[in-house]
Amino acid sequence: MQKQVKRKIRYTKAPKSPIIKKGNVVLASEALVKKGRRNLQAKMHINRGDEVVVISGDDLGKIGKVIEVFKDKSKIIVEGVNIIKRHRKSNAPGQEGEIVEIEAPIFSCKVMLWDGENKKASRLAHKELESGAKVRIYNTSKEQID
User: Residue ranges of the domains in the chain?
Assistant: First the structure.
């Protein structure tokens, strides 16, 4: 039987993934995890395929569709947002090298859901239907998302 180690949690302002430091101290982000929680994995309010608007950073105001979600890092990839350039070498002798533009991940706390009907950024609410299924709804228009 293994002995469970009690870890101390230190909170930071920066939005970063939980890190285990020396002396059983875990460094967690206040932005991603509520104080007092033992489960340090961030809750995601965004799913793949959602339309979102960027609310902070260089791409402020851009609207795009979520391509990929990384729950463990609390990051997402949004279509047309946070584009970076990568230099690729040639693989074959006759082929030339190229510069490729790709979307890089951003933190999920930097985006909000986009309510297309009201043309506004919206928070998220949860509602239970009569059938027992839980659905997400926009707070601005009370319209069902999924």
Answer: 1-43, 51-116
